C-alpha cells in the first residue's frame, strides 16, 4: 500500500505568507509606536547602546566623517567672527555647498560639524560639546543650524556652553550668536517620514562617504525623529530652558506659497466690485494661513518661531532651497544674503567677556 504524499507548500505561497507577516508586524509596530513615543524612544536608545557595546570599533562616531572640520580657512584680513555650520536630519553633506563659499568670500573662517544625526538630539549636542575644546582659540563662533541642526545648536548653547545661572561645563571659544535656518522649534510632522530621508542620506555618495550597514547604524536608530515630533519631551524641555541674554538668535524660514504680485490687486478689485472690505480681509487671511501652514514644505512658519527670538524672517523658498540651489544656473539661495547681513552686524559689536568684542548692543 502506497503512503499518501504530503504536499509541500509552494515557494510563492511561502513568499506571500512571509510578506503578509512582515506587513502585519510593521503595522503593529507603527500603531504601537504612534501611541507610545516615550517607550519607543527608550527602546531605540537601548538598541543603540547595545550595538555600541557589541561593536565599539564599528559604531564609534569618530570615523573620519563625523566631527569638526575646517571648510574655509581664515582669510586675511579675517572677520571678527568665525562660523560653525550644523546640518540637519539625514543630510548627505551638500547643504552647505552654496553658503560656505559665500561666507569665505565675505571674509569668514568657516567650520563644519558633522554628527550621527539619527541619534537623540541631546546626544548630538553632547557630541558637539565633546569636540568643542578642539577648536583653535581666537574669535568667537556664530552657529548656523539648518533644520534640526538649529535644535542641536540651541541645546548645546543653553545646556552645555552658556547655561543660564551656571558655570560653563565646556571650555573653548565663546558663542557669538545662533542663526536658525528652517528650524522646527515646535517640531515637524515630516519627522515621521525619516526612513525616506535615511535613504537619501546613506545612498548619496559625497567626499569619501560610502554606504554600509554600520554607517547607517552609527548614525543612530531613529531617536531623533521622536525628538522632532511636536510636543516631544525633548522640545518641551528645550523650549522651557532659559536662554543666555548675551547670545542673540535669529530665525530664517521659507515660504513655498507666496502671493503673486497681482494677488493684492485682485483683492482690491474684488473689494471694490462687492463694496466689501471685509471680503478682502477674509480672502487675504485665508491665503496667508495657507502659506503659513505650509511654510517651507517641511517646517511651518509657526514652528519656525524661536521661543526667545520672535517671528522668523520669511523668504520665498523650500526647505533645502533656503541654502542650496537646485541647479547651478539658479539665483543665489534667498537665506544667504540675510545670513551675511546678520553676521556682519554681530561682528561689528563688542562681545562681553571676550577681549575686543561685545554683543550686548544687539539684544532685543
From TrEMBL:
Domain Thioesterase: 119-208
One Pfam family from the record: Thioesterase
Alphabetical list of Gene3D superfamilies matching this protein: alpha/beta hydrolase (3.40.50.1820)
SUPFAM superfamilies documented for this protein: alpha/beta-Hydrolases
Protein origin, superkingdom: Bacteria
GO molecular function: acyltransferase activity
Annotated InterPro entries: AB_hydrolase_fold, Thioesterase
UniProt KW keywords: Acyltransferase, Transferase
Name of this protein: Lecithin--cholesterol acyltransferase
Organism expressing this protein natively: Candidatus Thiodictyon syntrophicum
Amino acid at each position: 500500500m502506497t503512503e499518501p504524499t504530503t504536499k509541500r507548500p509552494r515557494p510563492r505561497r511561502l513568499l506571500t505568507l512571509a510578506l503578509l507577516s512582515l506587513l502585519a508586524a510593521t503595522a503593529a509596530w507603527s500603531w504601537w509606536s504612534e501611541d507610545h513615543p516615550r517607550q519607543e524612544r527608550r527602546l531605540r536608545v537601548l538598541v543603540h547602546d547595545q550595538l555600541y557595546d557589541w561593536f565599539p570599533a564599528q559604531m564609534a562616531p569618530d570615523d573620519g566623517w563625523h566631527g569638526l572640520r575646517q571648510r574655509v580657512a581664515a582669510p586675511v584680513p579675517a572677520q571678527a567672527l568665525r562660523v560653525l555650520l550644523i546640518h540637519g536630519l539625514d543630510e548627505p553633506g551638500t547643504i552647505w555647498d552654496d553658503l560656505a563659499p559665500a561666507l569665505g568670500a565675505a571674509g569668514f573662517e568657516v567650520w563644519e560639524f558633522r554628527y550621527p544625526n539619527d541619534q537623540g538630539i541631546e546626544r548630538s549636542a553632547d557630541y558637539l560639546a565633546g569636540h568643542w575644546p578642539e577648536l583653535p582659540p581666537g574669535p568667537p563662533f556664530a552657529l548656523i543650524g539648518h533644520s534640526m541642526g538649529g535644535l542641536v545648536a540651541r541645546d548645546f548653547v543653553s545646556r552645555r556652553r552658556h547655561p543660564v545661572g551656571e558655570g560653563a561645563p565646556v571650555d573653548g571659544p565663546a558663542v557669538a550668536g545662533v542663526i536658525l535656518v528652517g528650524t522646527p522649534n515646535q517640531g515637524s510632522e515630516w519627522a515621521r517620514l525619516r526612513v525616506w530621508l535615511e535613504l537619501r542620506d546613506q545612498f548619496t555618495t559625497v567626499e569619501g562617504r560610502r554606504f554600509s550597514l554600520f554607517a547607517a547604524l552609527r548614525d543612530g536608530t531613529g531617536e531623533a525623529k521622536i525628538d522632532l515630533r511636536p510636543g516631544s519631551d525633548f522640545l518641551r524641555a528645550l523650549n522651557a530652558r532659559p536662554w543666555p541674554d548675551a547670545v542673540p538668535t535669529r530665525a530664517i524660514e521659507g515660504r513655498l506659497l507666496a502671493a503673486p504680485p497681482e494677488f493684492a490687486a485682485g483683492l482690491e478689485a474684488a473689494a471694490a466690485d462687492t463694496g466689501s472690505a471685509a471680503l478682502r480681509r477674509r480672502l487675504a487671511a485665508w491665503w496667508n494661513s495657507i502659506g503659513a501652514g505650509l511654510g517651507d514644505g517641511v517646517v511651518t512658519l509657526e514652528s519656525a518661531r524661536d521661543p526667545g527670538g520672535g517671528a522668523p524672517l520669511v523668504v520665498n523658498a523650500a526647505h533645502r532651497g533656503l541654502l542650496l540651489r537646485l541647479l547651478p544656473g539658479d539665483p543665489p539661495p534667498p537665506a544667504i544674503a540675510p545670513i551675511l547681513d546678520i553676521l556682519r552686524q554681530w561682528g561689528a559689536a563688542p562681545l562681553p567677556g571676550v577681549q575686543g568684542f561685545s554683543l550686548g548692543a544687539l539684544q532685543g
